Amino acid sequence: MQIISTTDAPAAIGPYSQAILVDGILYISGQIGLTPGGELVASDVESQTHQVLKNLSAVLAAAGGSLRDVIKTTIFLADMDDFATVNAIYAEYFGDHRPARSTVAVKTLPKDVRIEIDCIAKPGAGA
């Protein structure tokens, strides 16, 4: 088991790692719309979604991977009315790569953000 960490994404805000690599599979903790410096990028879901996907990309890169290596994502939304907006931005980042995905509405998220995404990937597998 290897802990993966990068300063190109925000540090964990609790007792957990940005990601863990086990047997070639990367488990990335939920990312929210914080900049690498730990500041909330903005209050709107569009800005937060872009930052979340940049953070995921940075953690993937630290493990030698990219979004094309993602196997599964889970999206947590504070408001399901944001689904279409998030879906459109998500599609921009993933292009024709279509990992398995779940999207759930939750009552609240850390720091009262509007979106959090975690993922599982196999760095270097790139579709």
Polypeptide structure, described:
The protein has a single domain (2-121), classed as RutC-like (60s Ribosomal Protein L30, Chain: A, 2-Layer Sandwich). With 127 residues, the chain is an alpha+beta fold. The chain has a 6-stranded mixed β-sheet, with helices on one face. Helix 1 packs parallel to helix 2. The two termini are 24 Å apart. The protein is built from 2 helices and 6 strands.
Task: Please supply descriptive tags for the structure shown above.
single chain, 127 residues, alpha+beta, 60s Ribosomal Protein L30, Chain: A, six-stranded mixed beta sheet, globular
In short:
This protein is of the alpha+beta class and 127 residues long. It is built from two helices and six strands; from the N terminus they run βββαβαββ.
Show the helix and strand layout.
Blueprint: E1 2-4, E2 19-22, E3 25-31, H1 45-62, E4 70-77, H2 83-94, E5 100-105, E6 115-121
Helix pairs in contact: 1-2
Helical content stands at 10-25%
List the secondary-structure elements in sequence, H or E.
EEEHEHEE
Q: Judging by the overall fold, what is the CATH architecture? A: 2-Layer Sandwich
Main sheet summary: 6 strands, mixed
- The total of beta strands comes to 6
Strand order of the largest sheet: 1-2-3-6-4-5
Count every helix, treating DSSP H or I runs of 4 or more residues as helices. 2
CATH topology: 60s Ribosomal Protein L30, Chain: A
